[in-house]
Amino acid sequence: MKELVQLEDFKGELVPITDSLKVAEVTDKRHADVMKDIRELINKLMSNHETREIAQRNFAQCSYINSNNREMPKYLMTKEGFENLMFTYNGTKMVIAKAKFIRKFHEMEEELKNNQQFKLPKTYKEALEQLVEQEEEKEKLQLENKQKDEVIKQQTPKVLFADAVSASHTSILVGELAKILKQNGVDIGQNRFFEWLRENEYLIKRKGSDYNMPTQKSMKLELMEIKETSITHADGHISISKTPKITGKGQIYFINKLKPVLELAEA
């Protein structure tokens, strides 16, 4: 006997199919009786508008050549059609027969699923449909990538802040930190940053030799330090140049202080 279930073109679609001959053989029923049962089932389904479509979609009469070389009728049926037919049969033998067929239907469905993943177009229409699917998938991927790029773009300032913090093991000039802040969305330049440091008592704002030098508060918190540079003049005398610098700890401190300004601007 041939396979109980085979993949065949059924009403324009490749689906798992069995037929009345195979049902008769497995259930030990006469083929004529199975044909009669199918006709009665189809008539019942066709008599109700809610079930008419089931009969039309799942059964199809065709013919075969028997051992006497005569053309005889038989029915093809889908899994749904087969299940509806088996509902009319009772007994242990029928339960076993149904189980055999259903297992084969499942195997064919899995095979069909695997084949469709690598299906090559057979007609111009199929090729166009496949091309449309590929273009739609490409557009979907492009949209997803664009959305990812937007997220990355939005997160860039925060990433750069994190990079600045991780690299903050050396002291830098006030102007250098102002530049980092400016590049990351905080609208503050070197002069305004100096002014902010003075107004918030991190730098001395009293005019004099200590102007713009770290306050006792900054030094105590280890946020800033003073870099002293010896300068030898042409006449031989030496002077000391003092420059405020922000320590690694201070960089983290001021970035965290000013980060809410960036987050507020983003909101």
Automatic annotation (TrEMBL):
Residues 124-154 form a coiled coil. GO terms for molecular function: DNA binding. It comes from the Bacteria. Keywords: Coiled coil. Residues 151-259 form the Antirepressor protein C-terminal domain. InterPro entries: Ant_C, Phage_regulatory_Rha. NCBIfam families: phage_pRha. This is Phage regulatory protein Rha (Phage_pRha). The lineage of its organism: Bacteria, Bacillati, Bacillota, Clostridia, Peptostreptococcales.
